[in-house]
Amino acid sequence: MQRYKTRYELKTEVKSLLQGNWTRAIQLYLIPVIVMILNINVNRSNSTDAMKDAIYNNGGAFSSLLSTGLISYIISLVVLLISLSSAFKGLDWIEDPQLDFQPIKSNFTYFRSPDWWKLILIYILVGIFTFLWTLLLVIPGIMKWLAYSQTYFIYKDLNDRGEADGLTLTDYITRSRQLMVGNKGRYFMMQLSFLGWWILGSITLGIGFIWIYPYYKLTMANFYRDLVDKNAVNNIG
Question: What pLDDT, on a 0 to 100 scale, did the predictor assign at position 48?
């Protein structure tokens, strides 16, 4: 097995890709950023309305909370499909820096796919498995979150290569866990290396995320590509 690229090398490659391509990168991830911000604001607004209803109109409090939860969950699923569509196109871009694509349109790739429901079910399964492990202790939950982190990229990879026949949705999760053996620490440290950027984005009222988010997502895609390149094919295939 070859040496994995360092965090510096992975980030440097992404910075090189972004040079002269910031406009495309921002457009590719702009909708996920905007939707996330809107989702946060909608949740805050709905929560406030629900609390007011509970105080002033006790009879309608429960139905208001149910409505708030349903709307929030639907929004989260829309965000999921948009985010994964852009993330998958980002992986394609990492693999082919000369790739010609339409950034905004790429956000809606999986809305046009007949398999969009599979991504939602994987999302639910990963959430359930992670939650169950978290019930034991927080640390096991975090470890499983790290282990399952490559599930979506593996799903895309195997389906693009025509190697997904006969696989169940849990197989993608299992292969992510296998691929992350010995790599969870590296992935965790990669996440921590962006902590300063997240703080900077927060103190700029979210404006900084317009540039930070593309940098982060492309780096995560580059991390996955390095994992696959340096591991035996049967880890994902």
Answer: 45
